[in-house]
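Memo to structure team: turn this sequence into structure tokens by end of day. - J.P.
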Amino acid sequence: MNDQQQMIQETVSRILRDHCSKEVVDAAEAGNWAAGLWQNLEDNGLTLAGIPEANGGIGGDYADSLLVLREAAGFAAPLPLAETLIAAHLLALAGEQVPMGPLTLATGDFSLKQEGQGFRLTGYASEVAFLPWAQVLLVPVAGGQPALCRLNPTDITATTRHNMAGEPRSDITVDTVLAAEAVSAMPVDPLTLCMNMGAAARAVQMTGALTSVLNLSVQYAMERTQFGKAISGFQAIQHQLATLACEVAACQRAADALMTSPEALSALDLAVAKARIGEAVSLVTDIAHQVHGAMGYTMEHSLNLRTRRLWCWRDEYQREAHWEAEIGKLVVAGGADNLWNLITTAS
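Reply from structure team:
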């Protein structure tokens, strides 16, 4: 981690410690936009960390964006940070200015055809994150001429519900004509890039939340007493916490391999990270809730703010089975003679 990243990490942590209380997260889950928390992060440039200054960001690289996501996930920040940063990277890649405010994306089945002086966009998408709170919706379109479309979320036909973490997720249907200036040509397939960036973001977010779960569990075990001593002194608890720590360490290493530009990201590193970190979620959350006992299941305790998000993020941008199959395809494509080299030289 370089000096700039150290500064970003410290700034994010300070802001979230001061402004991302359990009450703020609970209010967001009840449907109240955490405007103050967002504004504090935006005022410090952190909602556009890693975005080129020429496009409206604060500079840096994609690793800076992922660092913000990891730190924010540790505090269960109820904000579309991942969606905003991915959208901002796509806009920058298209040579566009990135607007201020929360952004989101719709990855689904869309088609784009020229109509008059504009373009007709039709299609649908499910599980669009944070649509009610977004100021701009981006729709990446593959096939033919890859493009990135910008829409006003209030113009979208949407059915919104909330996931297990209390975050809004919307199913949308689009049939509209966009002005030419709302459509940008892309130099690469934006849909594939968006899916890969989304998987990397969720992997990093899960790592941040898993690290927080470990810290909460260790702290609770040291404070909770039973039979006259802290439960951290019992061998069974020590074994559980050791297993939890090993899982988190493996996830941190897998996430570290993702700290590069989206274009340079190794397909194998991405598949391994999303699969390995997703796999760890079940074991880590099981152990954490066992250590906390009934207390950890109550809505008054902050553990569930992390574990509920972990269960949701694990499912998004494909679960382990998909990414494990991708690992298999990459191994087969490399051939038997390259298997040992693939294993020993992978990040």
